[in-house]
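Hi support team,

I submitted a single chain yesterday and got back a structure, but I'm not sure I'm reading the token output correctly. Could someone confirm the output below corresponds to the sequence I sent? I've pasted both exactly as they appear in my results page.

Thanks,
R.
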Amino acid sequence: MTDKHIKPDYLFEVSWEVCNKVGGIYTVLSSKYKSMANDLGDRYIFIGPDVWKETIDNPDFIEDKSLYRSWQASTEKEGLRIRTGRWNIPGKPVAVLVDFTPFFAEKDKIFAEFWETYKLDSLSGGWDYVEPALFGYAAGYAPIPTKVFTIMGLIIQFLILVILTSYISLFLNDFVVPIMYKYKITTSKAWFKFLPILSRHLGYFVLYGLFIFVLMILVVICIVLFGLFTCCLGFLLLIIPYIGSVVLLPISYTFRAFSVEFLEQFGEDFTIFPKQEVLKEGLSE
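Hi R., thanks for writing in. Yes, this is the structure output for that exact sequence:
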């Protein structure tokens, strides 16, 4: 156990009774703010329904359009209207009122999603149920920044998948295949023989992959320069199957020899080819 408390950067409180006195929750929330105002101040933000939007004044809400203008602009682009200001209670905390009425036209679709995802039965609910439910949906509606972060998350996941796939392919070609050759075993058995040294020396193999990646970039740059300096004749030579293989053979041999030599440092069990001394002894016998 630890006595250390984590203080959030922001705390959002969402309720139907923010700036909308209906029952006892209004008093609970206003009392709760008193106990937390010193620690959080304006970083404690209340989110409530904009149920007074068609009237001249909401006695519980003091509008301040200068607060969080970027939020207002962002949600406006998404078709969600909000108003920012202060809740007219002691301490006057920041309040954001959400106009949920644009979702009335989509309520059947929204409640169908609630049923399919959460098994939330809305068929028997009246407007005293529909309005708070749609307010909750609007309060959690994803504006542009959230969608951007979602897309970024998908891109990061895709990049991680690409990196993992590349490493697996690299290890298969550079290490598992030589082990298969040495012991005349199947791929799965070769993987089981390789994985223990991979787990013990993971950092070395990660650096090996990065080093190979850098070498491949250098090779590509050299090939591009070769093609450009030969007025594209070099490119034409490389795309001819046999000639291209012969020209690139030193590069292929270097990569293969490097992987074998790298693997040999982990013990005699991973020495793919016999040493020159062993060959000489064998020939002399």
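A quick pointer for reading it: The CA atoms of residues 11 and 44 lie 5 Å apart. Let us know if anything else looks off.

Best,
Support desk
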